[in-house]
Design brief:
binds SN-glycerol-3-phosphate; 52% helix; N-(1-d-carboxylethyl)-l-norvaline Dehydrogenase, domain 2; eight-stranded mixed sheet; binds nicotinamide-adenine-dinucleotide; single chain; Rossmann fold
């Protein structure tokens, strides 16, 4: 049994706290709102984020980050990407010994185009950092919290830490694989949210399954194109953190990104959509980051470009999808095998 801190008491942080608690660990779940922490400790629920779920009694809510990370050697970060720099800066004041930092968030930072593991390595001094481990894969909190079968991947440059974190999380409902391709695992998890916004848009416009399959498949091609250019193993995109997460996020009603895209497709404005959601819709910021990054490194990402135009230049969603269909002729295999794998 280990004492573990989970930072971020939203839907995914709470679901991962449940997995760790089911495995017998003492879980300090840190959240900023006192009323929410009181609810976690008194009623063993987190109704706003996981309605109808009773939390195990070995999850302890804490509203002090200092107390949450006291005496732990593993910290799991699960805040939205936009809060990551602030959390890391708060955290580094409090560390007194080396820790392993696991992150389970999915995004890329606009302007810097950094992955989350890069932000962690930048912000936390190396004397306090044992290893950084990424946890990613097709996994909606709503199902994980109900102990429904789920598979994920953990990834680290530190093979020993990667296996220790696999052992910490794995159980009969939550199967954990390893994959040492940190770049591919992080980029697959972040970039699929852009395509899920597109799948939601298409559904909101009343398009069918054919359009969805096209977005998933051609979305994977452009994710893999950018990912490979950034140094990922192309085969990672055929795995859980690539096509696996793309499928679940583009097809599940649980997906925040799909739901946001769906509302946009039905004519709602972005600000109203984000207000209605009240939860992290990571694909919006990641679209901006990926659009900028793709331009910088000279990678073609036609779906991402159209989603960017809809989100940030108020382009009509129907025009955006029509323009994807009207692009110049291209070869599917040449695009995939010659440009991607060579
Ligand atoms: N929800 C899922 O099923 C799921 C699954 C896999 C990965 N993720 C990823 O996990 C991350 C979190 O998503 P979520 O769905 O849990 O979001 P959420 O909106 O449900 O919860 C986010 C939580 O982070 C808290 N938070 C925000 N800023 C904070 C800060 N500075 N310090 C501490 N807490 C802060 C919020 O108060 C909220 O409780 C995202 O990157 C998302 O892509 C989510
Ligand atoms: O609900 P979403 O769209 O944020 O997706 C959550 C997870 O990343 C799915 O694996």
């Amino acid at each position: 049994m280990e004492k573990i801190a989970v930072i971020g008491a939203g839907s995914w942080g709470t679901a991962l706290a449940i997995v760790l608690a089911d495995n017998g660990h003492h879980v300090n779940l840190y959240g900023r709102r006192n009323d929410q922490i009181q609810e976690i400790n008194d009623k063993h629920t987190n109704e706003k984020y996981l309605p109808g779920i009773t939390l195990p009694h070995n999850i302890f809510g804490l509203s002090s980050l200092r107390h949450a990370v006291e005496d732990v050697s593993t910290i799991v970060l699960v805040t939205p990407t936009k809060a990551m720099r602030q959390v890391l800066s708060d955290l580094k004041q409090l560390l007194t010994k080396k820790v392993t930092i696991v992150h389970a968030s999915k995004g890329i930072e606009p302007e810097t185009h950094k992955r989350i593991s890069e932000m962690i390595e930048e912000e936390i001094p190396s004397e306090y950092l044992n290893a950084v481990v990424v946890l990613s894969g097709p996994s909606h909190a709503e199902e994980v919290s109900r102990r429904m079968p789920t598979t994920v991947t953990v990834s680290s440059n530190n093979a020993n830490a990667q296996e220790l974190i696999q052992d910490l999380f794995i159980n009969s409902n939550f199967r954990v694989y390893t994959n040492a391709d940190v770049i591919g695992v992080e980029l697959g998890g972040a970039l699929k949210n852009i395509i899920a916004l597109g799948a939601g848009l298409a559904d909101g416009l009343g398009h069918g399954d054919n359009a969805k399959a096209a977005l998933i498949t051609r979305g994977l091609a452009e994710i893999a194109r950018l990912g490979t250019k950034m140094g990922a193993n192309p085969l990672t995109f055929a795995g859980l953190t690539g096509i696996g997460d793309l499928i679940v996020t583009c097809t599940s009603v649980h997906s925040r990104n799909w739901r946001a895209g769906n509302m946009l497709g039905k004519g709602k404005k972005l600000n109203d959509v984000l207000e209605d959601m009240g939860m992290a819709v990571e694909g919006v910021r990641t679209t901006k980051a990926a659009y900028q990054l793709a331009k910088n490194v000279g990678v073609e990402m036609p779906i991402t470009e159209q989603i960017y135009e809809v989100l940030f230049n108020d382009k009509d969603p129907k025009t955006a999808l029509d323009e994807l269909m009207a692009r110049g002729k291209t070869k599917e295999l040449e695009d995939f095998s010659e440009k991607l794998f060579l």
